[in-house]
UniProtKB/TrEMBL annotation:
Pfam families: DYW_deaminase, PPR, PPR_2. PPR repeats lie at residues 115-149, 219-253, 254-288, 289-323, 390-424, 425-459, 460-494, 561-595. Residues 1-13 have a biased composition (Low complexity). This is DYW domain-containing protein.
Length: 862
DNA sequence: TTAGGGTTAG
């Protein structure tokens, strides 16, 4: 009784770590200065008869008892309630039911005296609309005014605390519930459950579990709530233990239990377990409902498995479960990912049929779907018809315009949205920045990037990723790397998208140290070396000339898939190790991984490099039967290369002639290379003409023709360039780059300004190698001639000379070239590698040449 | 009167 008279004993002696918690000394900073007690002058609280009649008998009973328990007024004869208050409370309910929340609030605010019923009506009006912030704020005011919630209202407020993440108020209400005796009896199970859920949702699982253990009675909801708590904290093991425990105690899991588990596994990306649980659910005789299916559909969409998501949606329909707005929205989102306009339209009609089309959720998915499918007008129409647009609506429409290249329209919405009381969030800014950078307006993108924090929006990892990916996309690789370093210096943690965005920019010979730095960053930030990152690293290490590191990443790969195998097989091909590539192919098959299109191209190429014509041809001929893969252009290219290398030009030509696909320039290029290598001028002419017909003015044709001329001494008649150069960017400088001690030096053909020392070095090298240079045919280059006459020298010779004189002996010389190597330079590099005992790596657009001890890994065929 | 599902950017 003492407790009832002094409902806040802890105010005098706060003990913060007590369980159940005591009332805090202050409910909120500054909100509650004094201990709150029921005021002795509080107006009478007897339930008005008129409203009582509308309530159930049980409710009536509970209400009167709760008022007595609260000790809100001294015992005595029931006091009269002024009829005006009763009428006002009724009016709040009427307004609220009619959707006039503002009017309801006006009545409430104007009341001179507010009893528990008035508070319940007003709080209920907010709670039913999910306006949990308002519920929490009102609840605090209510307690401050000395009114305490009954067992019904307390559950509503606890629910609001759970959603609004208000652990402080939640603890206080727990204390109220304990002290007022709402937690002990069978009929109080819902209150206990609400307390439990409040702790679980606010992340205090220890308290949730204590409530759970103390509950004298538990129902299905109790178990569900506790399981939910563990699922939310990703403690699947404990959640599954509870599932077993509830069954042992005689409570069979219901549809909500299964849905809780399935949805949390689906959200976490563990779709296989979610599917397994779906099976168990069906086996136990519980039919999956629309929530179960929606969890699976959306989980699959998030895991980039949209095709499966749509199959799942169909399964739901076949099971006779009618989709609602949420499930349709998820399915539309799957269509958006797959750009399935027709299926998206079908779902649109279905949304109209079930009346969810004006629902903001379906509307948002439709805007996104139409925009991604390129139907920007339809997207705009849906957007304009959404009655209460939220942040998702605006962001989706802005993204739609930006992706379609209409940055002006996107920016118009970006500026306009705040006039509609929708605050721009980090995604809005990111979308706009991404739109500008993707459309080549880097300046505006960086401007917005600089501005956003002054508008109170904090940049996140995605913001940085957009700048990095955009810089890579626009060819500003060094800028991308600077941004990457800057984000780390500002303690912004990179994620797997950062890594995947930046790696491809440095998958080349002259940036090997950058690949190592990126790899170190993966370790430093403890980023999971998941499939995609590992595959990207294998690829990057391989292309940066470091096959050993590529193999190391592959060996430690946690989840090798066909892409990982393709990466490592292609790495060995690139490094001139076709035999190892084929060994890996066998291992892959032994591990039960089926080859795909790319694997078979690599295998045919490997046989080609080894001169194993028959094995390669067999692979090509049997691929449809053995692996159900129809030969495509790439496979024909590999076959032409295989036959061409061995000089079987006639067979190669017959293959091209008989192929069911139209040969593209790559097929003819492979054939031309073979004809040039084997000195067959007639066939080289033929190939050059075909190539010119496909791609007039292709600079590669001109180069191959000149190679043929060099080789045979005969002129090759190909049409001169009539169209602009294709295959390279207009601003790209023809030349090569060499990496020395993490610095990159760029040379262009014949440009010797400021390179006097290098030219001198080159001269001395040539003298050292003496007659050898003349043996390979130096053409216009004569070491005894003056500098001016060296202008015709190819840049890789300069780069090699520069590398020899500027790097230590044990370092490899790494060079990349924009044009293919000529015979002279190739022979020169071989000689240098022997004479100077150096490893030289040169990557041209076609081949990685590894020169060592006078030999090249390409075996002189490229 | 309690418990489960959704849509946007890199």
């Amino acid at each position: 009784m003492e407790l009832l008279l002094h409902p806040f004993p802890s105010l005098l002696h706060p003990k913060p770590h007590h369980f159940p918690p005591q009332f805090p000394s202050k409910l909120r900073h500054g909100r509650l200065q004094e201990p709150v007690m029921a005021s002795p002058q509080a107006p009478p609280l007897t339930l008005p008869l008129s409203l009582q009649e509308t309530r159930s008998a049980a409710h009536r009973h509970d209400r009167s008892s709760s008022i007595q328990e609260a000790g809100a007024r001294p015992p005595g004869p029931p006091a009269r309630v002024e009829p005006r208050f009763v009428a006002e409370t009724k009016l709040i309910t009427v307004h609220s039911c009619a959707g006039r929340l503002g009017d309801a609030r006006k009545v409430f605010d104007g009341m001179r005296h507010r009893d528990l019923l008035a508070w319940s009506a007003m709080i209920g009006a907010y709670a039913i609309r999910g306006m949990y912030g308002e519920v929490v704020a009102l609840a605090v005011s209510m307690v401050e005014e000395g009114v305490l919630p009954d067992r019904f209202l307390i559950t509503r407020i606890l629910q609001a605390c759970a959603y609004a993440d208000d652990l402080e108020l939640g603890r206080m209400l727990h204390s109220v519930a304990v002290k007022r005796g709402f937690m002990g009896r069978v009929r109080d199970v819902p209150v206990g459950n609400s307390v439990l859920v409040m702790y679980a949702k606010c992340g205090d699982l220890v308290c949730a579990r204590k409530v759970f253990e103390k509950m004298a009675c538990r129902d299905l909801g109790t178990w569900n709530s506790m399981i939910f708590g563990y699922c939310q904290s990703a403690d699947w093991e404990e959640a599954r233990r509870l599932l077993d425990a509830m069954r042992q105690e005689g409570t069979e899991p219901g549809v909500v239990t299964w849905n809780t588990l399935i949805s949390s596994y689906a959200r976490s990306g563990d779709l296989d377990v979610a599917m397994e649980l779906l099976g168990q659910m069906e086996e136990s005789g519980v039919a999956p409902d629309v929530v179960t299916w929606t969890s699976l559909v959306s989980g699959l969409v998030h895991m980039d498995r949209s095709d499966e998501a749509l199959r799942c949606f169909i399964r739901m329909r076949l099971a006779g479960v009618e989709p609602n707005g949420m499930s349709i929205a998820s399915a539309i989102s799957a269509c958006a990912c797959l750009k399935l306009l027709n299926q998206g339209r079908e779902l649109h009609s279905h949304a109209i049929k079930v009346g969810s089309v004006n629902n903001v959720l379906s509307g948002n998915s439709l805007v996104d779907m139409y925009a991604k499918c390129g139907e920007i007008v339809s997207a705009q129409r849906i957007f304009s018809e959404i009655p209460e647009k939220d942040i998702f609506s605006w962001n989706s429409m802005i993204a739609g315009y930006a992706q379609a290249g209409y940055c002006g329209k996107a920016y118009e919405l970006f500026c306009k949205m705040e006039n509609y009381d929708v605050r721009r969030n980090v995604i809005t800014w990111n979308t706009m920045i991404s739109g500008y950078i993707r459309n080549g307006d880097d300046e505006r993108a960086f401007e917005l990037f600089q501005m956003m924090e002054s508008y109170g929006v904090k940049r996140d990892t995605a913001t940085w990723n957009i700048l990095i990916a955009g810089s890579v996309h626009n060819g500003y690789y060094d800028r991308a790397f600077r941004i990457f370093r800057q984000m780390q210096s500002l303690l912004m943690r990179p994620d797997y998208i950062t890594i995947l965005s930046i790696i491809p920019a440095f998958a080349n010979l002259i940036a090997s140290w950058k690949v190592r730095e990126i790899h170190a960053c993966v370790f430093h930030h403890n980023l999971e070396l998941d499939g995609k990152i590992a595959n990207a690293l294998i690829n990057a290490y391989s292309k940066s000339g470091d096959l050993a590191s590529a193999c190391a990443v592959f060996d430690m790969h946690p989840s090798r898939n066909i892409i990982s195998w393709n990466c490592i097989i292609l790495a060995h091909l690139l490094h001139g190790s076709p035999n190892e590539a084929l060994i890996l192919f066998s291992q892959m098959k032994q591990e039960g991984v089926l080859p795909d299109h790319t694997t078979l191209v690599a295998v045919i190429k490997a046989y080609g490099l080894m001169g194993k014509i028959s094995e390669g041809s067999q692979t090509f001929l049997n691929m449809a039967n053995d692996y159900n893969i129809t030969p495509e252009l790439d496979h024909y290219v590999a076959m032409v290369d295989l036959l061409g290398r061995s000089g079987r030009l006639k067979e190669a030509y017959e293959l091209i002639d008989a192929m069911p696909l139209i040969p593209n320039s790559t097929v003819w290029e492979a054939f031309l290379s073979a004809a040039v290598r084997h000195g067959n001028v007639r066939l080289a002419h033929l190939a050059a003409r075909e190539l010119s017909a496909i791609d007039p003015g292709d600079h590669r044709v001109q180069r191959l023709a000149s190679s043929l001329q060099d080789l045979t001494g005969k002129s090759v008649d190909v049409p001169k360039e009539t169209a602009p150069n294709k295959g390279r960017k207009s601003d790209e400088v023809e030349g090569c780059s060499v990496e020395i001690r993490n610095n990159v030096y760029v040379f262009s053909n014949g440009d010797i300004v400021g390179l006097e020392d290098t030219v001198a070095e080159l001269k001395s090298m040539m003298i050292k190698m003496g007659h050898s240079m003349l043996d390979i045919g130096v053409g216009s280059l004569d070491v005894e001639e003056e500098k001016e006459e060296i202008v015709g020298v190819h840049c890789e010779k300069l780069a090699i000379a520069f590398g020899i004189s500027n790097s230590s002996h044990f370092k490899k010389i790494r060079i990349i070239k924009t044009a293919r190597m000529c015979n002279h330079c190739h022979s020169f590099a071989k000689l240098v590698s022997k004479k100077y005992e150096r490893h030289i790596l040169i990557k041209d657009p076609k081949c990685l040449h590894k020169f060592e001890d006078g030999k090249c890994s390409c075996e002189d065929y490229w």
